[in-house]
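Researcher: Structure prediction, please.
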Amino acid sequence: MLEFIATYAPKLIVAGLTYTIPLALISFVFAILIAGLVAVIRSFNPQFIGLKAQAWHGVRFIAWFYVWLFRSTPMLVQLFVFFYGLPKLGISWLSPSGWAAAIWVLSLNTGAYASEAIRAAITSIPDTQREAAASLGMTGSQTYLRIVLPQALRVSIPTLANSFISLVKDTSLASVVTIVEMFYLGQQFAAATFEPLQMYLLVAAIYALFVSILSIPQHYLQNWADRFVKTQE
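Model: Predicted structure follows.
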């Protein structure tokens, strides 16, 4: 068993560092940007900046439809649609490679779930804080940017961290769009060695190792975000 691990673990770790981790990090950055924009659109009061409610309803509907679509369909199906389906419609520029298709799908799928976490955090901020900000002469947009959003981001850190952990594991689905990431390589080794149990257990152990290491910054980020929050003994 030790010889088996020594032979294949380094190759799997290299594949993880070359494909799995970069794919997860790039997709998560885009997912957070998408989630933040969608959450703000769905929770922001347009009257704060003088927009008409009717015009804002259309934007909100688009944001709602995006969240509904990506939360209601399997990620595997979404990967097939982007990589195999869209080129049939002449939209190959959107996903010209497996990397592009995987980043699109992982970002949009994770962004849909993360947007709900951020939106829930925004709505959890008490109205009394908005009223206090208004009594100090702050505008609606100032209140939103300086009071509501910073607190909402702090509250949503644990949920967003869980989304990132799920995203790291979901990168295994990228094998269906020809990305030779860690799970894909494990499948090839399992077929060559006829040892599927040992190989997949090894792959699972390496995923667990990566997730454990990548989860460490969450603790420090949470402590940094909570540095001004008073704790009760």
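Model: The mean pLDDT is 87.
Researcher: Thanks, that helps.
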